[in-house]
Design a protein that fits this description.
The structure is a single chain. By secondary structure, this protein is an alpha+beta fold. It has two domains: 194 residues, no CATH class; 113 residues, no CATH class. Helices cover 32% and strands 26% of the residues. Helix 3 links the parallel strand 8 and strand 9.
Length: 368
């Protein structure tokens, strides 16, 4: 069944049922707390039908669309990272006897559910692959129902990072939503044997040329709508050459070092561990939780914090994301989703910061 198929909107719940009956815990976009978030869902009624998002630097709003699009938004307000790297996780629990000797040690990391990610975008699939390279994974990979973006957000720049807007890997099924006056359907690309098996349980038909062409037009239109652009040519070397650039001082004057950018980033993976004991001192638990390179304590050693200034912490984050990550892991740590721009309280824009450094270097070269 490899190739292009079509599912009618009325049969989308059949896809949910096929996943649920196979034991998957389905996670996808839904509207909650005036945002589009990812959570467990069980039918198409849980999806953000008729909603879109407006994203700009330091600004996020959802609003009603003029149609019944199921996936008519850019990306969710938080990422799928929470399912690869939980925000908080108890690692183990220990008990000691009255003499202070170890009585029992229990590893408490739970076995993750069999996830099906419903509605993942191309940039998010790239982010998941990056995290898997960094963290490793011993569990069953999730079943992925990807969605090809039908419109770009105001802070998106996945085209610059070559991570979207069209998913070409990492999915079992990929949907392109088509809405016209006389039809509402999804053109489906099958990406795996698992996808073939699940789609066989859902009413579908082979796509005709007109439908394939319409889907390709959606992809082309989205690629032309990027809200941001990042010139990646020689970017790693550019940042290495400008480690002492005055732009780092300028951005530090605005940066609150709140860590929002790292919390919403789908590839940031900094964590810390905390040990908690009960009052009697007979039980201790170790927890892992997300941390951020923007906190002073994260770089604290015996002599104090290595990165004690906002300047050094922002420089560390941006340079790691766009430069040293490549040396460590073989790819950029940025997938162009734009979340760090949207959710920065003061609207700091990573594409603007990179452009400012590049422009000043080029200007200095012209002056010489």
């Amino acid at each position: 069944m490899r190739g292009t198929q079509v599912i009618d909107r009325s049969d989308l719940d059949g896809l949910f049922q096929a996943l649920l009956t196979r034991g998957y815990t389905v996670v996808g976009p839904t509207v909650r707390d005036q945002a589009i978030v990812y959570d467990e869902i069980s039918s198409s009624a849980d999806l953000p039908i008729g909603w879109t998002d407006e994203q700009e630097a330091g600004r996020y709003r959802i609003k009603r669309r003029g149609d019944s699009a199921v996936f008519g938004y850019a990306v969710g307000s938080h990422s799928w990272k929470q399912y690869q790297l939980p925000p908080q996780l108890q690692l183990w629990r220990a008990e000691v006897d009255e003499q202070g000797g170890l009585k029992q040690l229990t590893e408490t990391v739970p076995e993750p559910p069999r996830y099906a990610f419903f509605g993942a975008r191309s940039c998010e699939l790239h982010a998941g692959a990056i995290l898997e390279r960094v963290l490793g994974s011993g569990s069953e990979p999730p079943f992925v129902v990807a969605v090809q973006c039908g419109e770009a957000g105001g802070t998106c720049f996945c085209v610059s990072m070559q991570t979207g807007p069209v998913a070409d890997r990492g999915f079992d099924l990929a949907l392109t939503e088509l809405i016209e006056s006389d039809r509402h359907e999804f053109v489906v690309e099958v990406g795996s044997e698992r996808g073939t098996e699940v789609l066989a349980a859902v009413p579908h038909r082979t796509a005709v040329d007109e439908e394939r062409t319409a889907a390709e037009q959606v992809h082309e239109n989205t690629a032309a709508q990027m809200g941001r652009e990042l010139d990646t040519a020689g970017l790693k070397e550019l940042l290495y050459r400008n480690y002492e650039h005055p732009r780092w001082d300028e951005v530090a004057e605005r940066c609150l070092t709140c860590g929002n950018c790292t919390m919403v980033c789908p590839t940031c993976f900094c964590t810390t561990v905390e040990d908690v004991t009960n009052l009697a001192g007979t039980q201790v638990e170790r927890h892992q939780r997300w941390d951020s390179c923007f906190t002073v304590d994260y770089s604290h050693l015996s002599g104090g914090a290595v990165r004690s200034s906002a300047r050094s912490r922002y420089r560390q984050w941006m340079t790691h994301k766009l430069a040293t990550w490549i040396d460590q892991f073989g790819s950029s740590g940025c997938v162009g989703c734009g979340r760090c721009i949207t959710w920065c309280p003061v609207g700091i824009d990573i594409t603007e910061e990179a452009r400012a450094i590049r422009d000043s270097e080029e200007q200095a070269r012209a002056d010489d």
